[in-house]
Every structure is written in structure tokens, then in C-alpha cells.
Amino acid sequence: MAAMEKHTAAKHHHLAAMRHIAQARKVDSFLAMDVLAAANQREAAGEATYHLEVGQPGAPTPQSVRDAISATLADGRIGYTEAAGTKALRQRIARHYADQYGQSVDPARVMVTTGSSASFSLAFLLLCDPGDRIALPRPGYPAYRNIVRALGLEPVEIDLDPDSGWVLTPEALAKHHDDVPIRAVLIASPNNPTGTVMPPQAIEKLASYCKQAGIWYISDEIYHGLVFDGEQCCALSFDEDAIIINSFSKYYCMTGWRIGWMILPERLVRGAEALAQNLFICAPSLSQTAALAAFDATDELETIKAGYAANRQRLLQTQEVLGLAGGPPPDGAFYMYWPVQTLLRPGETSVALCDSLLAETGIAITPGNDFDPVHGDGFVRVSFAGSQETISEAADLFEHWAKRRSNRL
Ligand SMILES: Cc1ncc(COP(=O)(O)O)c(C=O)c1O
After folding, report:
1. Measured between alpha carbons, how far is 114 from 288 in angstroms, rounded to an integer?
2. pLDDT per residue over 121-179, tens digit each?
3. Of 210, 204, 146, whose CA–CA distance to 172 is shortest?
4. 213 confidence band (pLDDT: 50, 70, 90)
5. More exposed terminus of the chain, fewer Cβ within 10 Å: N or C?
6. Which of 145, 192, 223 to mutate to test the pocket of ligand 1 (most atoms within 8 A of CB)?
7. Ligand 1 centroid to 112 CA: how many Å?
8. Rounded to whole angstroms, how far apart are CA atoms 142 and 113?
9. Ligand 1 mean position to 198 CA, how many Å?
10. Which domains does the chain have, with CATH numbers?
């Protein structure tokens, strides 16, 4: 009997162990998406709702891009492509670097991916061994730290300061690197959520420190094309080994097509290709056809960008009226990152403030905690990627609500 019971107990133990879920790689949810869900619920109930929470263009994908796929759709053969993407798209992306930045990029170094999101995973898997440390400026795009964690790497978040323009300095990075070596740093310029565009000299200083310290420079350039002030600069100008990540999601208004790209040093291409073959096979082929056409949709896209520029001016006015400037003006992307301490009631969090704002006005914005779990409470991120009508109505309503809150009405 004892042998039988022992066997059963061992079997149960084994089964229970099989059901164990890895704890170390658990990641946080994305608060912006939680706010979106609440705003959608309100909208479905027929109440006026203003979406300033999600970072996606309010405008549809350009008509010419949608037209470009009609022949492929009619043909119906929508199959796999090579893992790195179609030759035509890789060549067109390479040409974009010559046109935009005067950089000569061999199309063989271009890898087309499922949004920029897949590029991050590929880059980390290519460059890192388990447990490696990745430096991430804070505040920053929340998925960075979550992808890093999910891959069994260690995010090293480095606090940025509005007084120094929300820019990561080599000195701040060196402090952490000297402690325990950092494998790579991931920089987004323009930045989400601050909208900061790093001046070329700041990129040059950081990139040259990285080169000398043996740290990979990964540059998220997803908000390129959306610079309103300051100079847009590709990190390849200062480091030929920089890993450039970009996407059709933002400037090109193609979030749902899940299509992006990366530029790699030649020696990493074969490894990236093998990883992509196994992890993703390829990026969606229909989206690759659409992406090719996106480079010729400049007129439509520049009109949309002019709308963002007007939205930005309107919200800078709100910022001024309510005294919400928390650093340099956002020169790029389509976000404002506002310190809202003056609007918080005693003990209230940014999450609660965003809840109240949505319930009382229908305006959805994102709590700063998403972008900075340590100091983000007291900040909110406002996206101005919506239509001019939406942003202007929301700005009026927000000003009124904020003044009432701080007893200025
Ligand atoms: C800074 C930044 N990088 C990357 C992404 C991911 O974009 P996608 O995977 O659609 O290219 C986002 C999306 O909001 C972002 O803000």
C-alpha cells in the first residue's frame, strides 16, 4: 500500500509542479489600455468620450496605402515572405535613409518586423545572454522594461530629470555601468511620454560613450517624422553599429498593420534572420505591400502632421493657462507629460485623478505610473494624436474642470 500511495503522491506533486507559472518573468499590465477599456465602455453607453489616452493616430491609414493592397487582395495569394521581408520593401527602407538622413544603408542590413515591438525582442535576444542588464531611461515606454523582464534580462531604469531636459547623459549611464556592466541602452527620441527630441550633440556624446564602454546603442526612432521643433537625428550618424528600430505605426498611421523595421550591423543580420524565421516566420505580407506604398503617401501624412502641430499649440496653451509645464516643451511625438500635483486632492493618486476626469468629463488620459512606476504618480500623459476637433473640445473641457478643481473658478 505504501508504495502505491507514494507513487500517487509523487504523481500529484509532479502534476502540480507542471502547472507552476514562472514568477520571475511576470510583467505589469499597461494602464493606458485599462483606461482605454473604461473609456470604450463609456462610449458604448452613448456618453461623450475624448480619447487622449492611447498613442495612436486618430486619422485612418492613407487612402493610397489602402489602395495599394487591392490587387494583392484580389489575387488572394497572401503567403509567407522571406523572414527579413520582401526585397522591394527592404530596398525602399534603405533608400529612405539616404533621402532622409544622407546615410547609405545596405538593404541587406534591413530587417522587416511585426511592428517595432518584434524588433525589440529580436534585438535583445541577439545581443544578450540571460541576466544581462539593459539601461532604460525613466520615464519611458512601459513595454521596454516588460519585454526586458519577460526575456529574463534585468532592466536598469535610470531617472531622467525635467530640469536637464529629460535627456540621459553619459555620466548617468556610466554610474550604473561602472557598478555592474550594462549590455545595451535603449533610447527613444522623440520620447514617449515626454516628447523630448534629443539634440544631435546629446546623442553624439551618449553614442560615443557607449562605443568606448562597449555598450550597444539601441535607438527607437518610431516617432521620427513627428518632430515639430528641434532636429531629428538618426543614431547611425554617430555610431555605425547602432541598432535602429522604427515602425509604420505612428507617422504613417498604420498601428494595426503591425509592421516595422530594424537596421542592424552586417555581422548581426544572419543571426537576426535565423531568430525571426523561428519566432515569427515573417512580418504580415499584406502589410509589407502596404508599407511600400506608405513612403509615397507624404502629402496625406504631412496634412495629418499639420493637425498634430495645431493640437500641440492648443495644448501648450492649456499647459500655460494651468501652469502644467514640467520641463522643456515636447518637441516631437504626440504627447504631453504633465505634472498634475496642483490638481491632486490630498492622498489622491494619478490613477484616481484620471478616473475622476473620465467620469466627470469623458476625457481619457493616462496616469504617469505607466511610464515611471517610481516617480510617475503626480504626472499624466496626454496624447494629441486625435482630430483637431477632439483635442480642442477636450482642451476647453479640461481647462474648465482643472480650474474648478483647484478652486480657480
Ligand atoms: C516609444 C514606442 N516604441 C515602440 C512602440 C510600439 O509600436 P509598434 O509595435 O506598433 O511599432 C510604441 C507604441 O506606442 C512606442 O510608443
Report:
1. 10
2. 999 999 999 999 999 999 999 999 999 999 999 999 999 988 888 999 999 999 999 99
3. 210
4. very high
5. N
6. 192
7. 15
8. 20
9. 18
10. 31-61+299-404 (3.90.1150.10), 64-295 (3.40.640.10)
